[in-house]
Design a protein that fits this description.
By secondary structure, the chain is an all-alpha fold. 73% of the residues lie in helices and 0% in strands. It is built from four helices and no strands. It starts with 8 loop residues before the first helix and ends with a helix.
């Protein structure tokens, strides 16, 4: 006897061909879980329970399909954003490279100036800090 791995399309929905007439399970309880609630007053109906499970599977499949579509749209959006951001990042990199050259030249000139002046610039800075501190103290007391 040979076992058929793939039943025909007409027998996929008909659970009695798959499960047989003697397969009986309790009916669905209306809960979202596929496990039935056992009650003694209801007669078990395997065909109805299998149809309920099939309906739950279809609902979950539709939910998963919408989630996959949403994830696909998000990933496409991320890809488009990355493609659009690359030229901006290249421009930003070039701007930073130019400004770093400008700043390094400014610091080099400032160091040359401070070496020519000796320590006088340090005394000027200390004097400005003391004056600034004095103005802050006076302003604080006058408030």
């Amino acid at each position: 006897r040979r076992f058929r791995a793939y039943p025909s399309q007409t027998s996929l929905r008909d659970r009695t061909n798959l499960l047989g007439e003697t397969y009986n399970t309790p009916p669905a309880s209306g809960r979202s879980t596929p496990l039935p609630m056992y009650r003694d007053d209801l007669a078990p109906s395997g065909h109805r329970f299998a149809d309920d499970l099939e309906g739950q599977n279809d609902e979950r499949l539709e939910g998963l399909t919408t989630k996959v579509k949403l994830l696909k749209d998000i990933s496409i959006g991320i890809g488009n954003e990355v493609k659009n951001s690359v030229p901006d990042l290249d421009t930003l990199t070039d701007t930073f490279a130019g400004s770093s050259g400008l700043l390094s030249g400014t610091f080099r000139r400032m160091n040359n100036m401070s070496q020519r002046q000796g320590c006088r610039w340090l005394w000027y800075m200390i004097f400005l800090i003391i004056v600034f501190w004095f103005f802050i103290v006076v302003w604080w007391w006058r408030r």
